[in-house]
Amino acid sequence: MSIPPESPSERNEEAPAEVFQSNTHHPPAPADELFDIKTTVDPSYIISLIRKLLPANVKCGEISLGYDAHDASTEGPKTENFDEQSVNGKLYFQNKHEDVAVGEEDWEESGCILWDLAASRTHAEFMVENFALEVLLATLMVSKSARITEISLGIIGNLACHDVSRRKITSTNGLIGTVLEQLFLDDAPCLCEACRLITLFLQSEESALLVEALQSEHILCRVLWIIENTLNLQLLEKSISLILAIAESKQDVATILLPPLIKLGLPRILVDLLSVEISKLIEERLPERYSFLDLILQTVEALSVMDEYSQEICSNKGLFQLLTQLIKLPDKADFVNSCIAASVLTANILTDAADLALEISQDLLFLQGLLDVFPFASDDIEARSAVWNILARILIQIQKTEMSPSNLHQYVSVLTSKSEVVEDELLNYDVDNTSEDHERSAKLTARSFALNGIVELLSRWRTLEDQVKGNLSMEGCYVNEGDVDKMLHYCYKYTNSSAGELMNEPTIYKP
Fold first, then answer.
1. How far, in Å, CA of 94 to CA of 102, rounded?
2. Cβ burial, residue 283 (10 Å; 0-12/13-18/19+)
3. What Rg do the C-alpha atoms of the chain give, in angstroms?
4. What does the pLDDT look like over 55-65, one tens digit per residue?
5. CA 432, CA 440: separation in Å to the nearest integer?
6. Which of 45, 50, 52, 146 gives 187 a disulfide partner, CB atoms 3.0 to 4.6 angstroms apart?
7. For 23-179, where are the E strands, in sequence order?
8. How far apart are CA 315 and CA 312, in angstroms?
9. What's the Cα-to-Cα distance from 18 to each of 8, 22, 182, 382, 441, rounded to whole Å?
10. What segment(s) does the record annotate as region Disordered (predicted)?
11. What are the chain's domains?
12. pLDDT digits (tens, 9 = 90+) for 27-80
């Protein structure tokens, strides 16, 4: 029943009308009692659903839900339909016509219909105008049913997808605090809806009030505890999405919430989660877990580009090893987004920790896995630039190394086995012209350094004696000399092209 912000599903728009037609025990109001709003659902029927969500037996007089449809402008409940009660000095009303409290099953039915209706902006605005939020707040405060709490949070979550109703949520006294209290429940569906609702607010213009309440160490500890301990896949996704929303949010949100989260161990938790997901990926390819891997990597990447936290991320040796392990995995098609994210993150880390390039320069499997990322990153300029950047750093290290003919042959074998991949990438390569001059220069320079490194290795290999080449190929590391010549040709071609473009660039960046 969750929906993306401002994008109610087609089912949510159309299905309720059919449901309502079949619910003969909830007949529509007479024509003279209809409201003047554009909706396929009778407004008085929506009000009747909201009434059914009120806590059993006691009806709050401050919530004027007792009026007839044609008396919508009348303030307060129509007292002829209600008995007055006094509870703790406050005046309440009990509906005379509701002798039996609404059962949980009927409550759930009404709540689920409202959950769907809240996906529509028109219905959502009508609901908040008619005290749906006050009713849901009262329900959350007294409910002992996990299912009722989940539905209440779900309705509020869908209401939060629309600007007007979201602003009404922030102005409903006590609602935000009550929602945050639900994070301490032990029910996974309730926690999923609470995390979704919090995430929606963090991504909105109304985040300030939530951030003020959320910055409590007690609450942040609970969020991290959920991430670290839940075995529920949906809850894991929702809770990580919450952290990602913080990392990618406006500067003031990140400034307030990230320091305590970092202090409470967020980087360690993210690396531990990444380790678990990569281990599962190696042992068994489970498509339902790929999204978690993507979310974790996106969150780490968001932290890695922040000046305040980049050093802590980039100095984590365990993280770097996990990223290289992921890039080395074969058959990337199923989890390609994670490999692209890992490549970008690796490039970011190497920018701050260039010495790590020496370690991966000696790993032929990593070089092969890195080149395999190119075809999947064809539509992502930043990802392709990241691969060229890593490749340039590796080849610069290789050039500094004295290699035996056997090692040289192995490197050339890997490069020529991916010659078509590299050629296609060069044919399709396009540096983003909207980039700042120094960024564009850095991308061109990284590619130029990488191509020069390839040329240097291939040229060095060609100087080997034919007998040595033949013996090494017979040992199982085959190199086709025609592929070497072809690769040299287009590397020379694009190296010269890059040099021509760079002559007019004011800033040169060396990886």
1. 13
2. exposed
3. 30
4. 865 444 444 44
5. 7
6. 146
7. 59-60, 82-87, 90-95
8. 5
9. 17, 7, 33, 47, 60
10. 1-32
11. 102-226 (1.25.10.10)
12. 344 444 444 445 567 889 999 999 999 886 544 444 444 333 334 333 333 333
